[in-house]
């Protein structure tokens, strides 16, 4: 089956002189597959997400290949769109429809001057879907689906009248309203408290399960990832250093950076004054990072950097 997303040797650089921030990453996502992307701040997770949907700024130089399957209403067509050379019009036809994204910052992704119900409704009209019973009822249904209370009142509210958790759920409603085949979630719960976070993850998990929808789920929190995805990629300094089934990655981390992540995420509460171990305790920053070369297509086996973990061959 054609994968939904096929990324090959993707490199992204910014500025003058050019600074490369993604150093040739490769992976693919099959229909219904849930792929996690984990890594520290600045490792290149959001740049990867934005590149996939052709949303990087003009200042970004992109090489390599990013292919998205082009589905029609009835399913896959076998056609693929090369994102790196696609026109804005071709990309716009896929975004918010077959492919959607939930951004890190709910406030910046919502229009502060428009009631949220209308913002969800406008997306419905955008791609020419016919809505039985009208768009208002579909909007309310969608707000209910993301577990928002008093959906009538919420739909008639402006973003600033909602809590952070409610805003994030509105964004999720917007991302899911056109029933996408793949949703990129870029740290959708980072800004939320633990209760709101659990609720949002539950809503997403339910959606992916019911619709057999795929996701590229980005987080720096291993515990969050473990509950949502089947397979995971570990990113470090613009390289994918390890990839495979999430259970295997958790049970038997291979790269020193992953070892550090797993060890620190299993911590019990430390006693007052006790120094908490950090990822840095497991990982020598002075050793140059090497990335995976091959594409983990089937994801059945672990993919590891050849040679010494984290270092040269
Ligand atoms: N528009 C831009 N111009 C220049 N550099 C950028 C731009 N966007 C991202 N970068 C750089 O690319 C690198 C990767 O950034 P990215 O936003 O992907 O990190 P991240 O893994 O998403 O981190 P976080 O967990 O903090 O969100 C960083 O060094 C960042 O400074
Ligand atoms: Mg980010």
From TrEMBL:
SUPFAM superfamilies linked: P-loop containing nucleoside triphosphate hydrolases
Family, as annotated: Belongs to the ABC transporter superfamily.
Listed name of the protein: Peptide/nickel transport system ATP-binding protein
Main location: membrane
Native source organism of the sequence: Raineyella antarctica
InterPro entries: AAA+_ATPase, ABC_Ni/Peptide_Import, ABC_transporter-like_ATP-bd, ABC_transporter-like_CS, P-loop_NTPase
Family matches, as SMART domains: AAA (SM00382)
GO cellular component: plasma membrane
Keywords from the UniProt entry: ATP-binding, Cell membrane, Membrane, Nucleotide-binding, Transport
UniProt xrefs under PANTHER family: DIPEPTIDE TRANSPORT ATP-BINDING PROTEIN DPPD (PTHR43297:SF2), OLIGOPEPTIDE TRANSPORT ATP-BINDING PROTEIN APPD (PTHR43297)
Residue spans crossing the bilayer: none
Subcellular location: Cell membrane
Topological type in the membrane: Peripheral membrane protein
């Amino acid at each position: 089956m054609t994968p939904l997303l096929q990324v090959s040797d993707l490199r992204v650089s910014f500025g003058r002189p050019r600074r490369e921030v993604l150093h040739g990453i490769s992976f693919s996502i099959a229909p219904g597959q849930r792929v996690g992307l984990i890594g520290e701040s600045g490792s290149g997770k959001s740049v990867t997400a934005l590149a996939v949907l052709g949303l990087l700024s003009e200042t970004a130089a992109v090489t390599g290949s990013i292919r998205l399957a082009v589905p029609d209403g009835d399913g896959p067509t076998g056609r693929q769109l090369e994102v790196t050379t696609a026109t804005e019009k071709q990309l716009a036809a896929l975004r918010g429809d077959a492919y959607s994204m939930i951004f890190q910052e709910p406030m910046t992704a919502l229009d502060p001057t428009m009631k949220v119900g209308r913002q969800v409704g406008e997306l419905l009209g955008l791609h020419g879907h016919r809505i039985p019973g009208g768009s208002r009822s579909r909007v309310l249904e969608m707000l209910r689906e993301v577990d928002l209370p008093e959906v009538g009142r919420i739909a008639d509210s402006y973003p600033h009248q909602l809590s952070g958790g409610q805003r994030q759920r509105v964004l999720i409603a917007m991302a899911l309203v056109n029933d996408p085949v793949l949703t990129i979630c870029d740290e959708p719960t980072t800004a939320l408290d633990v209760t709101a976070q659990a609720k949002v993850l539950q809503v997403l998990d339910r959606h992916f399960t019911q619709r057999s929808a795929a996701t590229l789920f980005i987080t720096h929190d291993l515990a969050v990832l473990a509950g949502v995805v089947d397979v995971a990629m570990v990113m470090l300094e613009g390289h994918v250093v390890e990839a495979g089934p999430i259970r295997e990655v958790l049970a038997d981390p291979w790269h020193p950076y992953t070892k550090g992540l797993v060890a620190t995420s299993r911590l019990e509460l430390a006693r007052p004054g006790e120094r908490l171990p950090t990822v840095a305790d497991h990982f020598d920053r002075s050793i140059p990072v090497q990335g995976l070369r091959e594409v983990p297509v089937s994801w059945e086996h672990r993919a590891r950097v050849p040679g010494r973990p984290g270092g040269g061959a």
